[in-house]
User: What shape does this take?
Amino acid sequence: MFLAPDESGLRDAAKLLRDGEIVAVPTETVYGLAANALDAAAVRKIFEAKGRPFIDPLIVHVCDMAMAERLAEPSPQLERLALRFWPGPLTVVLRKRAVVPDLVTAGEPTVALRMPAHPVMRRLIALAGVPLAAPSANPFGYVSPTTAAHVRDSLGARAPHILDGGPCAHGLESTIVNLADPAGVRLLRPGPVSPAELEAALGVPVLPAPSHMDQKAAQAAPGMLDRHYSPNTPLILRTAGTMAQVPPGYPGRVAVVHQARPADPRPKGVEHFWFSESGAPEEVARSLFALLRHLDSQNFAAIFAEAAPEGGLGDAINDRLKRAAAKR
Assistant: This one.
């Protein structure tokens, strides 16, 4: 059932979480499927509802620095990043304390922490009085949800309680940066906070994300598997400006998705869509998953999607599109 984002609905959701239940929750990035991060039995329900492999760790959401410090070892770099980006769409990987169950971290000695900016989520964590583990509220590997209706449509009875906080402001998952890597600060997943912004806050270079991860080993952070964020309809990624390469006579209905509304759509004979009227990266990010979900329900034989220009938020958009287009 949908829970209203008022004080009554929030108190109901907080009680469910304290009682070991799972609740779908809004954040400024995407909707999450939350459980008490300190209750391993409750966290297991997240994995079961999503069909998520245990090698994929969860992000733990906190409402203040005091809660973060109870979960992870102190770090001067965290203090600098938190001062600049928390609350907000940045997740930080740190050495974990023993209180965090191994199930949350895929057995790794680190934990991924975020302080969300969504006021409903922040209030919920404070009312529950516990940190919340909350991966995206969708079947594992599928397109992330950015509205409460997306959660209902993709999880159904597996998410019996959905706190409706409205559409997500960013529409893309958080940036993840590893502060526990002995080689230096490393980007693990691009997102709304860019590497340049991280470097400006830290005063040190940020190493690029690994080019490939062992797909069967425990992951350092969520969202790093090659195939992720993926519709059931095959998605074929095209570089910017090459949409005319859609093969003529492609069997079945084809959707062509542009970054911005095209002045003169090409190729002809296919159905055209666009992530944004102007192609502004922030608008593309907000609509990306919602449009892919819509197209996935329209019985297209394939979705040809144009990549974003590189740099800044475009790198995060392309990361999601590349993983959505990875081989099945």
User: Anything to note?
Assistant: Residues 281-296 form the longest helix (16 residues). The chain has nine helices and 14 strands. The two ends are 33 Å apart (CA to CA).
